[in-house]
Amino acid sequence: MSGTTQDAVAQAIRDGRTALGIELGSTRIKACLIAADDPTQVLAVGSHAWENVFEDRMWTYSLEDVWSGLQAAYAALLADAEARHGVRPDTFGAIGVSAMMHGYLAFDEAGDLLVPFRTWRNTTTGRAAAELTEAFGVNIPLRWSIAHLHQAVLDQEPHVPRVRFLTTLAGYVHFRLTGRRALGVGDASGMFPIDSATGDYDAELIARYDRLAAGRLHGESVTALLPEVLAAGQPAGELTAQGAALLDPTGTLRPGIPLCPPEGDAGTGMVATNAVAPRTGNVSAGTSIFAMVVLERPLEKVHHELDLVTTPAGDPVAMVHCNNGASELAAWAGMFARFAEASGTPVDDDAVYETLFREALSGEADAGGLLAYNHLAGEPIAGLTEGRPLFVRTPDSRFTLANAMRAQLYGVFGTLALGMRVLEDEGVVLDRMFAHGGMFRTAGVAQRFLAGALDAPVSVGDTAAEGGAWGIAVLAAYAGAVKEGDAAASGIPLSSYLDERVFAHAPIDAVEPDPADVAGFASYLDRYRAGLAVEAAAVASLAPGR
């Protein structure tokens, strides 16, 4: 629809020649409507802010907040479509749902949640993850669903014998919308290891787990509890009448709309940055931050810093996942926004970020000897079971606003850089690295510092701020095109679809690493490693609430 008239766009929305993507992120639920025949054309957006809570020493979200948030984001998208195009859509060509990966959502026979949602942010599964890593011979991170399940088994939690269905947040929403217990292969790879040759759970590792947990779970195999695994482009069910009412309580939304396989935020980030082919990678920055690198060959060793997951098409990926991303940076920005308000000259949030980020550019390359730790939650890569955000300096550090903000931005990338150094040692080669997330909206700042941290070129596209909601909308459009037998898409691999139909003419801004930034960040990271002992001492000495 690129270059078409406003009336033509409105008619396409009425006809459902669109794709709707919804992503439940850590702090915001986003909805994104795109043109099915031109996925780069964003027609409307909507969002809703939400926050996890720390209850009974567990990070969680309530399912009531899931649905009220989804409804609010969807209603905001309808209002935006009407404001832009004079029409409120009541159908779509396809819908896709994505959300934070991993975690633990366990349901009984009646479909009732057995324990509060245990999110990816929890680090209480150390014993289970270690036991599974040894049994499987592959790294099982603390946040993976199988680690949560096995920890519950080891702890003999009373709900375990009643578990009949285990899924992720995206899988849960998809199930309620369609009635189908399915999951995209990328999201499924954060539940249990995937065999890329079969595109399904690794059969040998399933057998090993069944022997390990024999007699302690319902049924003969853990596969009975896990969602069906689907690759990008495969049909994943249709919106039921009950699902339509859940998303749109006004009753306007029509059922029968096909849905693509639900995916995790890692997979949609890869799609949003065209990083699904070997030797490509992406960094996604939000409440968490993670890097995904598509592999050409298996890794030689097991590394606790690296997860082995897949693209939405099922290709193997090394993932460096950090529980803590830009939340601490946002807290600092909020403090400066409040100062501006208290001084009688209030400034909007975007302007606060713009000012602070620009100030960071004038800071010293090593942040003047300052250190910032963004650990609100535990950070396995850094060896921390809990988080204590810290800002540290020595008497000879240069304590300026520019250095302080550069240290905060460096802090977002600190733990990520530790994991990426492991990939370098494995000889993994990257042709291109893309970045997306709200912190990259201020052009040339976070992108430049990330290039220095990775010592690699970093690209950002126009969709950097839309991120995963746009990515899952593209996956929905891809599935819709394949279903309709579109000659240009039917049977085409996802990587080719992205290259030829989505990113062929997309503007990309690439930044090469500045040698001074590379050297400065390396110095910062040396101090960062050494200072982790201070973080560990803070965890041991300062309990939350004291």
From TrEMBL:
Task: Tell me its family.
Answer: Belongs to the FGGY kinase family.
Every Carbohydrate kinase FGGY N-terminal domain range: 19-247
Which species is listed as the source?
Microbacterium salsuginis
Report whether Repressor shows up as a keyword of the record: no
Q: Does the keyword Transferase apply?
A: yes
Question: What InterPro entries does the database record attribute to this sequence?
Answer: ATPase_NBD, FGGY_C, FGGY_Carb_Kinase, FGGY_N
Tell me which SUPFAM superfamilies the record gives.
Actin-like ATPase domain (SSF53067)
UniProt entry keywords in alphabetical sequence = Carbohydrate metabolism, Kinase, Transferase, Xylose metabolism
Q: Which residues form the Carbohydrate kinase FGGY C-terminal domain?
A: 282-479
**Cited Pfam families:** FGGY_C, FGGY_N
UniProt protein name = ATPase
